[in-house]
Design goal:
single chain, about 220 residues, alpha/beta, Rossmann fold, five-stranded parallel β-sheet, 5 strands
């Protein structure tokens, strides 16, 4: 059982549908949440830039002098046949969905280690989604970028376990957020009704509190 009361948690992508709800629910559980997003006045970050992750983590740590949790809810999506995706689209998908989380976790690791050494229960949450388990036609590159993140989380969770840092990769099915309405290329197909964002966020926060280490699609 993890008590988020008093924990300092950075939520990246906090202006998005799931990120904002996770932020609110963590605050209700007693955490102090630092919000980051492209449009956030404080801790704004463009995750396409190679140095953005390290700068964001240092800015977050500077606010309260420590970091106890990191939630990475930022992401971009593109639709359409794989053969028609532009290089710019491919680059942004992997920069934001795969490389940025890797860089954020790399930069946060020393601070999360320090949290554990001080008696904290540090954690990292990512959202690779169901496409990392079941790559989807029309979402091939998006699926690949999320599968890369899931693979990284699976291996890195074993590495960081020694430092008492818990990694959780959440893989919910299609969720009714606004992400699909502003793709970086293509147009969304007619999706069936998705999961309620409030329920998905609550499940993720419960996993943080309950000490879970993985959230496959079946957990939602």
């Amino acid at each position: 059982m993890t008590n988020p009361g008093g924990a300092i948690v950075l939520v990246v992508g906090a202006t998005g549908g799931l990120g904002s709800l996770i932020s609110e629910q963590l605050e209700q559980a007693g955490a102090t949440v630092l919000r980051s997003g492209r449009t956030t006045k404080t801790l704004a970050a463009d995750l396409r830039a190679g140095d953005a992750a390290a700068q964001l983590i240092e800015a977050a740590v500077a606010v309260h002098g420590r970091l106890d949790g990191l939630v990475i809810a930022a992401g971009v999506v593109a639709f359409g046949p794989a053969t028609e995706l532009s290089d710019a689209t491919l680059r942004e998908l992997f920069d934001v969905n795969a490389l940025a989380p890797v860089r954020l976790i790399r930069a946060a690791a020393p601070h999360l280690t320090a949290s554990a050494q001080s008696g904290g229960e540090p954690f990292v949450v990512t959202l690779s989604g169901v496409v990392s388990e079941t790559p989807t036609a029309g979402l091939a590159a998006y699926s690949a970028s999320k599968a890369a993140l899931a693979a990284f989380m699976q291996a890195t969770s074993r590495e960081l376990r020694r430092a008492s840092i818990r990694l959780i990769d959440a893989r919910p099915g299609h969720t009714d957020t606004a992400l699909s309405t502003h793709p970086i290329q293509g147009a969304a197909p007619a999706f069936p009704a998705g999961l309620a964002p409030e329920a998905v966020a609550a499940r993720i926060v419960r996993a943080i509190i309950d000490g879970e280490k993985d959230l496959p699609s079946g957990a939602f």
